[in-house]
Amino acid sequence: MQSIKLYSLTGLRFFAALLVVIHHTFRDLVDVPGVSDLVWLGTVGVSFFFALSGFVLTWSLRPADTKRAFYRRRFARVYPLHLLTLLLAVPLFLFEGKGLDAGQLVSAGGLLQAWIPDSNVYFGMNAPSWSLSCEALFYAAFPFLAARLVNLGRPGLWKSMAAVLTLSLAIAFTVTMALTPGDDARFWLYIFPPFRILEFIAGCLLALLIKSGWRSPVPLPAAALAAGAAYTLLTAGNREGHPLGNGVEDAIILPFMLLVIASAATANISGKGWFLSHPWVVRLGEWSFALYLTHWLLLELVVHLDPGSKARSVTLQMLEGGVFVLVAVAVSAAAYTWFEKPLEERLRGRRPRPERVEAEQKVAAALPQ
Fold first, then answer.
1. pTM higher than 0.70, yes or no?
2. Considering only 8-12, 98-102, 334-338, which range has the smallest mean pLDDT?
């Protein structure tokens, strides 16, 4: 079972990244009544990525793997594109007339920015890269976490899952009540890696449950509908002037995201990948990391060159927003094809074994297109 490639989860990655991109586009580039409100909570796409990261790493866990090999693969996977976008931010900021801060550059380069409670630091340079600072902690901890979690039986996994979800909600509500809104609460509940690792651990536990033989009883469309309903209710609270705040909203919607992941994995294992396993959707999922990391710089450039975009008619703003998203996807395709993928393969130092490639191709061919 462990060798099955879960193509549907790769497809899901694209929609999580797209949610973040649309959130930024309809907040910073254009402002369309109704639409901008609806995508206000698009930041939960990051929570989805964190949980999915834990799931995928645990699902593909190799018993004989070494920590060194694991860390090398993770470095090859995320750092080259991060470094490229960080370096591209330098001439962009100079072009925009912004000052460059050595502290921002060093902290971002070392993936330490999410540990510093200053929005000028954790959102400095290429803003979305703050989440990679969290991922760096997840990767560092994963070999040690996995060694303990894999020994839990199914009852222990369920108890641990309940504890993680409860702890996430409890911390979020406690910090929200204790701190004033703004950078303080946002940092501790949205940015700070030790809090966000709870989402990653939840993903790890879910993967182990699936590996143990448990299957989601909820069909994927119903799981997606439930997650959409939860998202809609949370955005409605914001429109009425009663937002719960980052952290609380992420903790509330996390179980629904986990349900979507579980249902997608269950469908894939049973040979029903739905449209998420279609080759083009999987390809979009492969571009998702590049889409997530490159869209912010592109958005910065467009906003600088076109500062009056929010003053246009709703129709023109919708058109500009849609065109921007399409261009961002095209840029991500180029970044993945010509930089991210070839450099990752080079840094890994070896290519996949032919028999493994052949096995994955057979699985892909067997899935509904």
1. yes
2. 98-102
- Residues whose CB falls within 8 Å of the CB of residue 357, separated by 6 or more in sequence, listed in order: none
Residue 65: which region, alpha, beta or left (left: phi > 0; alpha: psi -120 to 50)? beta
Q: How far apart are CA 53 and CA 74, in angstroms?
A: 11
Residue 311 tokens, joined? 């003053």
Q: Which residue has the higher pLDDT, 369 or 294?
A: 294
pLDDT in tens, 207-248: 999 999 999 999 999 999 999 999 999 988 776 555 566 788
Q: Kindly give the interhelix angle for 279-286 and 7-24, rounded to the nearest 10 degrees.
A: 60
- Give the whole-angstrom CA distance, residue 361 versus residue 369: 13
Q: Average pLDDT in the 152-180 region? A: 93
Number of other residues whose CB lies within 10 A of the CB of residue 141? 15
User: In terms of Cα–Cα distance, which of 164, 166, 172 is closest to 244?
Assistant: 172
- Asked if 56 contacts 261 with a C-beta cutoff of 8 angstroms, the reply is no
Q: In whole angstroms, what is the distance from residue 186 CA to residue 182 CA?
A: 6
For tokens 């510093």, the residue is 116
pLDDT of residue 349: 78
Three state DSSP letters for the chain: CCCCCCHHHHHHHHHHHHHHHHHHHHHHHCCCCCHHHHCCCCCHHHHHHHHHHHHHHHHCCCCCCCHHHHHHHHHHHHHHHHHHHHHHHHHHHHHHCCCCCHHHHHHHHCCCHHHCCCHHHHCCCCHHHHHHHHHHHHHHHHHHHHHHHCCCCHHHHHHHHHHHHHHHHHHHHHHHHHCCCCHHHHHHHHHCHHHHHHHHHHHHHHHHHHHCCCCCCCCHHHHHHHHHHHHHHHHHHHHCCCCCCCCHHHHHHHHHHHHHHHHHHHHHHCCCCHHHHCHHHHHHHHCHHHHHHHHHHHHHHHHHHCCCHHHCCHHHHHHHHHHHHHHHHHHHHHHHHHHHHHHHHHHHCCCCCHHHHHHHHHHHHHCCC
Instruction: Judge whether residue 292 has pLDDT over 50.
Output: yes
More confident residue, 250 or 237: 250
Closest CA to 199 of 258, 153, 156: 258
pLDDT computed for residue 244 by the predictor: 65
